[in-house]
Amino acid sequence: MAEGARGWARRDLLRRSLLIVGGVAIGTATSELWWGTHRRTPLAGGPAGATFGNGRQGVGSGALEVVWSVPTGQRLVALTFDDGPAPQWTPMVLDTLAEHRVPATFFLVGAQVRRHADVIRDRLSGHEVGNHSWAHRDLAELDATEAYDDLRRSHDAIGDVTGVPPRLLRPPYGHLGGAVLHAAARLDYRLVLWSLQMVEREFPGDPAGHARRIVANVRPGTIVLGHDVGARRRLVALRGLTDMINGLRSRGYTFVTVSALLAAGVAPVPSR
Questions:
Q1: CA dist 61 to 94, 158, 164, 187, 247, Å?
Q2: Per-residue confidence (pLDDT) for residue 29, from 0 to 100
Q3: What does the mean pLDDT of the chain come to?
Q4: Full residue range of the structural domain in which residue 21 is found
Q5: Which positions are catalytic?
Q6: Cα–Cα distance between 269 and 97 in angstroms, integer?
Q7: What pLDDT does residue 90 have?
């Protein structure tokens, strides 16, 4: 009986040992499978990864600010325009802003800057420029090297044509990924999104109605997203730009660039 018990004990110990060894092997294989699958897509080393390789992370100041709006007690608002420049509508926007002495921030597409440099050359005094990628690809689908190369190419084009290297980034579609954050940090950008968007499709043929909608929804520190290229429906917002400006001024608002708005911001009070 004792002999049988010892036999069962040896078999139980052997079974447990095999389970442990098998578990380690399965765990190792699973880890290797995960790394092999995700090394380039979409996690480690891919769009989701906010680090680059195993060496030193060369990321400028080592920090990145992401802004949707700016906390301020002052009635300040920043108009921003994406995707240009283009000869169809960018001059119209610049003419309207000049007429009303309103500064704005233009998030420029590098390829468009190269193609239509004459549209903005010598016309951006008082305005601000930001980087909106080289060709409006979704940067959140690129890996860290691709995202950086795209933004660097656009950065250089904007600096060459305008004479002012951009310090702000707005990624296409507002899409963020680790690779975008890493590339932005390398370029020492502030990453600027928006807190209110022009909604032209909701006001077809009604520029005044669209302007009233924007005016009613602005709050101190709002960053407004508009476009100076794109589908023809966007003309609803651009044709109502004068009404928008006048309406906001009647509410006591002052127009500033995004950087000026950031400079006027105050530290937010933590909620209790």
A1: 34, 22, 20, 9, 40
A2: 56
A3: 86
A4: 1-38
A5: 82, 227
A6: 34
A7: 97
The answer to whether residue 189 is domain-embedded is: yes
Number of domains the chain is built from: 2
Q: In whole angstroms, give the CA distance from residue 164 to residue 179.
A: 25
Query: Which contacts of 260-266 are long-range, i.e. CB under 8 A and separated by 24 or more positions?
Result: 260/76, 260/78, 260/103, 261/70, 261/72, 261/76, 261/77, 261/78, 261/221, 261/223, 262/67, 262/70, 262/190, 264/70, 264/72, 264/74, 264/76, 265/70, 265/71, 265/72, 265/221, 266/71, 266/72, 266/73
Residues of the chain with pLDDT under 70: 1-45, 53, 266-272
For residue 271, being part of any structural domain is answered with: no
CB count in 10 Å sphere of residue 203: 20
pLDDT for the residue numbered 19: 47
What pTM does this model have?
0.82
Other C-beta atoms within 10 Å of 52: how many? 20
Asked whether residue 57 is assigned to any structural domain, the reply reads: no
Helix, strand, coil percentages (3-state) for the chain, rounded to 5, are 50, 10, 40
